[in-house]
Specification:
Blueprint (H helix, E strand, L loop, with lengths): L1 H8 L12 H15 L4 E11 L4 E12 L2 E6 L2 E5 L3 E6 L4 E6 L11 H4 L5 E11 L2 E10 L7 E9 L4 E8 L4 E11 L19 E4 L1
Parallel strand pairs: 6-12
Antiparallel strand pairs: 1-2, 1-11, 2-3, 3-4, 4-5, 5-6, 7-8, 8-9, 9-10, 10-11
Length: 211
């Protein structure tokens, strides 16, 4: 479950770039501006998790529909749904759905943070122009302003010349490297309101646990 939460923390906030250089700031501001102008968007992504110390080396796939503060997201065998009032976390292996109220803080699970995490709590640094999958991209490093409060020390963003996030790599304090790659990004994707509401009829036999 923790990997889905970390992914969603990579999808808000307040335009603070403490000690950031102007080049990285400009690129990140442009990307944020374009995302916030969208009515909705859809993403497909993969997550590669590697930790030499534990021997973990795994891949997972996920998708996300985002419209304002509403979202529907899946990763491996988990699903998160939110109508901006309630959030439902569906754990298929356990056949359990956890329902909770939306909490509007920095720790809330909103997939939109994957696309705007850099806006608060980080200093950013332009590293270099490089290539990723044959495409030219900007490489930008994010470093938490309060490192004692998080379990990672560095996030590296790879941003295309079209101001779209291509990949993010999170380096954690336990030696893990989590690589999130955007496989598909569709702007203003049409999506019905029912997508953002939990329908128990689609999950027969699931236990609903309310916080």
């Amino acid at each position: 479950m923790k990997y889905l939460f970390i992914v969603l923390l990579l999808f808000v906030t307040s335009n603070m770039f403490a000690q950031s250089d102007k080049k990285s700031e400009k690129i990140l501001d442009q990307m944020s501006s374009e995302i916030k102008q969208l009515n909705s968007f859809y993403i497909e992504f993969t997550v590669h998790i590697k930790n030499p110390a534990t021997g973990e080396d795994s891949d997972q796939e996920g998708i996300g529909y985002i419209k304002g503060d509403k979202y529907y997201a899946t990763l491996d065998k988990m699903t998160l749904i939110s109508n901006a009032i309630k959030t439902w976390t569906i754990v298929n292996e356990e056949k359990v759905t956890y329902q909770s109220d939306v909490v509007n803080d920095d720790e809330s699970m909103n997939p939109k943070k994957l696309m705007t995490i850099w806006e608060e709590g980080f200093k950013s640094k332009y590293v270099k122009e490089t290539t990723l999958n044959g495409r030219k991209v900007h490489q930008i490093g994010l470093y938490p302003i309060h490192p004692d409060e998080v379990n990672y020390h560095t996030i590296i963003l790879y941003i295309g010349k079209n101001n779209e996030l291509q990949q993010a790599r999170m380096k954690t304090k336990d030696g893990s490297i989590m690589t999130y790659t955007i496989q598909s990004f569709e702007k203003n994707k049409s999506v019905t309101k029912s997508k953002f509401v939990y329908n128990p009829q689609k999950y027969p036999g699931y236990q609903l646990i309310r916080d």
